[in-house]
């Protein structure tokens, strides 16, 4: 499992022109991808790490606060292209990504895990849909987490 985490000051997700998730203020936009062997336990550990990741500045300007510490929001978007293989040629291959029947339950499990802590401060995308994801990256700060 991979999470590409971006510290943002605003983010939104739209499907077919309709906004399905949005927030303004400090938070994280996390793109998640799954591999065939990923488990719910791995997903829970990575979601816990996401919530505790200290990438927000404290009063001294040091990255020392988590999204929970700053009362921020999170949008989690499923993105199988995080497992793109570009080692051969110019067209990415996606055989390392989990099939939808494996990835979708893991994505839903991640949403439920995060919602248990964040409540209405959690948003998501629509699994398998073509989405428009907008964000204002703060820093910029982008971090890759892997299980």
CATH architecture: 3-Layer(bba) Sandwich
| Spans of at least 5 consecutive residues with low confidence | none
Q: Please, what is the CATH homologous superfamily?
A: D-tyrosyl-tRNA(Tyr) deacylase
Number of strands: 7
Distance between the ends = 5 Å
Strand order of the largest sheet: 6-5-2-1-7
Largest sheet: 5 strands, mixed
Q: What does this 3D model show about the protein?
A:
By secondary structure, this protein is an alpha/beta fold. It has one domain (2-146): D-tyrosyl-trna(Tyr) Deacylase, Chain: A (3-Layer(bba) Sandwich), CATH 3.50.80. It is 22% helix and 41% strand. The chain contains two helices and seven strands; from the N terminus they run ββαβββαββ. It has helices spanning 40-52, 100-118; strands spanning 2-15, 18-33, 56-57, 63-65, 73-78, 122-124, 131-146. The strands form two sheets. Strands 6-5-2-1-7 form a five-stranded mixed sheet. Strand 1 (2-15) and strand 2 (18-33) form a beta hairpin. Helix 1 (40-52) crosses helix 2 (100-118). The protein is globular, with a radius of gyration of 15 Å. The N and C termini lie close together (5 Å). The model has no long low-confidence stretch (mean pLDDT 97).
Q: What is the topology?
A:
Elements: E1 2-15, E2 18-33, H1 40-52, E3 56-57, E4 63-65, E5 73-78, H2 100-118, E6 122-124, E7 131-146
Parallel strand pairs: 2-5, 5-6
Antiparallel strand pairs: 1-2, 1-7, 3-4
Notable characteristics:
five-stranded mixed beta sheet; two-stranded antiparallel sheet; single chain; alpha/beta; globular; 147 residues; 41% strand; 7 strands; D-tyrosyl-trna(Tyr) Deacylase, Chain: A
């Amino acid at each position: 499992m991979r999470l590409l985490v971006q510290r943002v000051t605003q983010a939104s997700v739209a499907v077919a022109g309709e906004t399905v998730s949005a927030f303004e203020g400090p938070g994280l936009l996390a793109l998640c991808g799954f591999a065939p062997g990923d488990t719910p336990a791995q997903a829970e550990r990575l979601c816990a790490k996401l919530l505790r990741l200290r990438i927000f500045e404290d009063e001294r300007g040091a990255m020392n606060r988590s999204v929970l510490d700053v009362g921020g929001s999170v949008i989690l978007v499923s993105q199988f292209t995080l497992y793109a293989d570009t080692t051969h040629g110019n067209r990415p291959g996606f055989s390392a990504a989990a099939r939808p029947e494996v990835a979708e339950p893991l994505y839903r499990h991640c949403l439920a895990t995060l919602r248990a802590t964040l409540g209405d401060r959690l948003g998501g995308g629509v699994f398998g849909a073509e989405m428009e994801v907008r964000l204002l990256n703060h820093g910029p700060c982008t971090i890759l987490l892997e299980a």
